[in-house]
Amino acid sequence: TLDDILYGGLLNIYKPVNMYSMKVCERVKQVLRDHFKQVTKTNLNFKVGHGGTLDPFAEGVLVIGIQKGTKKLSDFLKCNKKYLALGLLGLETDTLDREGKVVQVSSEMMKGTNKQDDTRISPKNITPILNKFIGFVDQPPPLYSAKRVHGMRLYEYARKNIDVHIKPNKVHIQDLKYLNQVDLPFFDLEIKCSGGTYIRSLVRDFAHALNTHATLIKLIRIQQGDHFLYEHSLHYDDINMENVKRHLIKL
Fold this sequence. Notes:
Order of helices and strands: HEHEEHEEEHHEEEHEEHEEEHE
Protein name: tRNA pseudouridine(55) synthase
CATH topology of the largest domain: Pseudouridine synthase
Structural class: alpha+beta
Low-confidence stretches: 111-119
Helix content: 25-40%
EC number: 5.4.99.25
GO biological process, one term: tRNA modification
CATH class of the largest domain: Alpha Beta
Pfam families: TruB_N
GO cellular component, one term: nucleus
Number of strands: 15
Shape: elongated
Radius of gyration: 20 Å
């Protein structure tokens, strides 16, 4: 009901690629404002936020809080998340994803000279390397990230070409599966991890363990917390008042 929305709640929204997470919040806020202005003839200001940024090139589950629901969003920053990731062996970018500038190339991978029976990189020996990352690990965040160091975000240091010491984060990789549904040099992973885990960093560190390089090509968040699953999400393109009322999770 409208009273439920005025009180507040949560939404499970599917963010598409090439979109900032805040644009999803702005869309929800605009739909609410327009509807309540039409019904009440007054301009209401709604609190709308999200529970954990997805990079513009990534897609998937984004938890949205409305009104008092925004006070619950910090729980989703810390909660477990599940991702599907597609990586490319053989090159590394400065942002560790497809959006960045190539800074490292492993020529043997990019030329396709690496064979399936290679003792270093092949489907049969990828899983043992991945297993080494399961558990609590110290993970350096990407230089191009929103993590703050001495009051500045890391990407600000990167853009200004300022050197900065980056301390690793302690993160928990609970499960890490090699799906093996694409051919090398591409590789696909399913990851269940704690809040604060950077999948870009995981892809980089995995490749370094293979003595090569890699970058993240595609990322989908398929779950956030225990109950927010991608198959139950409301797609950004379908955000309207009726769907907001239908998908609102009451507090």
